[in-house]
Write a structure and sequence with these properties.
By secondary structure, this protein is of the alpha+beta class. It is built from 8 helices and 7 strands. Helix 2 (20-30) packs across helix 5 and helix 7 crosses helix 8.
Length: 226
């Protein structure tokens, strides 16, 4: 009688048909239109992009409507599930104070959401920004990524906390890294100046200074229509 190992080897040698119907209907179900930002407000995720052209388009509601692919939506959903898992850990540890904390200010208009507020052994109440990252990126981390540093600086300065942490989970093996960040008033002043500079521009900067996938590369010939 064939053993489990032999059965598995036989199965591997067979050319099993792919169930394309199932994957197709799942992808179709998840694919949707990604509505453009409404404009008139800066969000930490947008300010984490170093490209001023993108930020101008974002603030002025000129980012085009896009199709949110099923694979990208699954990535977003995994991020949401990660937040739920971490919230459970923090609750079990009896250090979770709150989660998804809304932060706003009027001048310049900034709106954000802090992932967690915890009771830290050394720093008392402390904001935590949670991120997932692939193994290659995870192994390269020796500090918080610049865009995540910017996000946390905004939360620290808007909420008045002196320290915060960016917590990373590797998507491939679930290892963790956490980086403490101090509130930096100079960095905050630079963020505010960038916001005011963008508000003062009447036309979009010509060149994209973001990554190869920056959305602004798809937008041509825009200007302030007010």
């Amino acid at each position: 009688m064939a053993g489990i190992k032999q059965i598995a080897e036989i199965n591997q040698k067979r050319k099993a048909p792919r169930d394309k119907w199932l994957t197709k209907i799942i992808d179709e179900h998840l694919t949707e239109v990604d509505n453009p930002p409404r404009g008139g407000v800066f969000h930490p995720s947008a300010l984490g992009n170093p490209c001023d052209r993108y930020l101008w388009l974002y603030y002025n509601a000129k980012i085009p409507e896009q199709i949110l692919e099923a694979r990208i939506k699954r990535i977003f959903q995994n991020g949401n599930f990660l937040e739920d898992r971490v919230a459970l850990w923090l609750t079990d540890l009896n250090i979770l104070i709150d989660r998804e904390i809304s932060l706003k200010q009027e001048l310049p208009p900034i709106s954000g959401r802090m992932d967690f507020l915890i009771k830290h052994l050394e720093y008392g109440e402390l904001p935590v920004e949670l991120k997932s990252i692939n193994k290659f990126g995870f192994t390269q981390l020796s500090a918080a990524k610049p865009e995540h540093f910017t996000q946390l600086q905004m939360y620290l300065n808007m909420s008045g906390y002196d320290h915060g942490t960016v917590l990373y989970e590797c998507k491939d093996d679930q290892h963790l890294k956490a980086f403490l960040i101090e509130r930096d008033e100079e960095a905050w002043a630079d963020i505010l100046k960038r916001c005011f500079d963008i508000q003062a521009m009447t036309i979009a900067p010509d060149k994209c200074t973001g990554a190869w996938y920056c959305v602004c590369k798809k937008v041509k010939g825009v200007e302030d229509e007010s």
